Structures are given as C-alpha cells and as structure tokens.
Amino acid sequence: MLPDSTFHNEEQTDNGSIRTVLVVDDSRLQRRILVASLKKWGFEVTEAESGEAAMEICSQDPPDLILSDWMMPGMNGLEFCRKFREHSNEGYSYFILLTSKSEKNEIAEGLDAGADDFLTKPVNSDELRARISAGERILRMQRELSKKNRIVSETLDELQRVYDAIDKDLVQARKIQQSLVPELSRKFGSSSVSLLLKPCGHIGGDLVGMFSPGVNRLGFYSIDVSGHGITSAMMTARLGGYLSSTYFDQNVAMEKRFNRFYALRQPEEVASLLNARLIADTGIEEYFTMAYCIVDLRSGGLKMVQAGHPHPLLLRKDGSTEFLGEGGVPVGLVPDIPYSQIEAVMEPGDRLLLYSDGFTEARLENGDMLETEGLLELIAKCDSQHSGQEFLDDLYWNLTQVMSSEYGLEDDVSATVFEYNGP
Q: Which of 364, 387, 55 is nearest to 192 (CA)?
C-alpha cells in the first residue's frame, strides 16, 4: 500500500521513498489518466510530451521515478531511457517503460537500455501501485548503498591523506637514517672499510658503521634491530649515537685515557655496556644482534664479539673461507649476560665480511632461504677485480638475481666489509 502525501517528506525521500514522478507520453489523454492516479496517491508529478522535453526536465531536476511510453515520435522511450542513463548524476531514478511490447528480445533491449521495469498498456492502477512500491524498495537499497559507498570513499580519501602525510614523514626519516652512515667507504692507511645498507621499506632496522680514534686503531660493526619499520628505525638512531663516528665522548666503544686521547674498548665490554643500557630502559622491548670488531692495522690482529648476529665470514687471500664465532646472545635480551671475545689474525689481502640475516634468509624462487652456502655462491660470482664498495654492490646485485620475485625484499639487507692490506 502506497503512503499518502504526508508520508513523503525530505528525510524519507533520502531513505529511498519516491516523492517526485515524471510522466512522459505523447498522448495527452494517457498522461492525464496517469497523472490523476499519481496525484491521488500523493506524488509530485511533472509531465513531458516527448523524450526531448523529458531530458530537459531531467537535466534540471531528476525525479525519483520516470514513467515513459516506449512508442513516441522523435526520441522514443527506449532512446530517452538510454540517454537519461548516460547523463544521469550521482543519484538514481527508477525507470518504468510503458509498452504494448511483450516479446522477450524487446524486453531485453529495454533492460539493456537501462529500464528497471515494464508495464503493459493500458496500465492497470493496482499493478502500477505495486510496481511503484517495488521500485521504492529498490531505490531505498540503492540509496543506502550509495550512502555507504560515499562514506567508504570519504574514508579512503582521508586514509590516503594520512598515508601521504606518513609517507612524507618516512621519506624525511630515511634521510635522517641515512645521515647515520655519512660515509659508505673510507680508507684507513692502506686498508679500508665499506658499508652497504638497503632497507626493505622507507626505513629499516639495520645499522652499519665504522670509527677510528687514531692511527692504526679501527672499529667497525653490523647491527640488526628486532622487528621492522618505525620502531626499529628509532632504535637504530639511538644506537647510531651510542656508536658515533663523530662524537667520541658519546661513543660507548671508546674511553678517554689520561685526559688526552681516546682508546677502543674491548668488543666484549662494548656488548656488555650496550646490553646494560637497553635492559635499564623500561618499556623498550626491542633487542638487536651485533657483530663488532676492532683491529690493529699494524699487525692485522682482530678482536670480535658476536651477539646473536650471523657468523662473520673471513675471506682469505688464497681463496679459502672461514665463518667466525659461536653465535652469542642478542643485546638487550638477557640481563648481565657474559659475552665472549673471538680473536684472529688477518694477513694482507684478507677480507672480513659482516652481514645481516637479510642475506642468508632471503627467499629464493623455490621458496627456500639462501643460507650460508648460498651466500658463498653469491660471493664466488662477484668480480674478482672488485673490492670495497664495488664488491658489496656486486654481492647485492647477485642477491637480487636469485631472490624470489614473489616475496621480494622481505628484510633489510646490510653488510660491512673490512679489507686488510697490511700496515
């Protein structure tokens, strides 16, 4: 049963109730019959005697419902329906074609043009009321869906604005993080240290670095903070201050002696100091793995601590390789944990590679991880003439060639290579 005119207020129209109706028919008598019924039921009715006139009305104020004759001179009902749908705005109008046609292919043609329903002429009053009620239900669902879609669209727009703001901040954060590694390669006498840092996102949780408090004394490291993203990156910024290559008074790996010069602390002591600092900071759940080395450039004597980091790889000049260390416990995970120190002697021409598990845990095309055997294969593929930064670039490029295209770079990739060439 259709409601009377008192039921058709603005709020109900927004909810899908039909309030305005456009009757399109070249027959004045047919229009008069339809308009009389519609007004009796409480609708606001507008008339048009042709498809062209109807389009003009719809362009000004689209109705909730259109009742249009199919057969009209000039633009017929089918053409009017198709053109109306092409130019309709965000709102939706229910379209009923009035026709004497009953063939299935003709009805299909009308539906294809955009008609929602059909009424056979002469129009039965009760059937018309029932079809309008059905159209009202459909309009209500359509407008509710449109409202929800609008809310979703507005929400997505807001999320995009938030994402753009975060993305802008992350780009700036990446620049700040890159400033923690001001030099990717540096000479120390005839020897050198080179660094590689490839975050899997804008920012990452890996950190590499080097510092030297004086001639023939050198420290370098590779760090991997647990987790990914902003939290890990904030931790690397903090660690960059703890191991500063510029401000030695802030560097926990150095101590001032005789108030005159800085000396390098033993690697096991450095790991213990960093562990104590992280454990003392309440609320911080992050920890990190680390390989930290100091070397005497006169003798090639190497001292190293491994705290849960992948085993450093010693590449001898004669082509032999050796993984150093016994694993160790990550820094910031267990209080008062003792760290052991590893010692080795490097000969001129030897190289020491520190690397993050972004290498060894990289996913291959078959789904397996690279592992240490795969790392050795990547190193074997590197140009034998390349050293320092070129060697690291070769190594990373070789990794990208075997890495799974489906998974891509799932973790930060970083490395430090020390090349010893004698005193």
A: 387
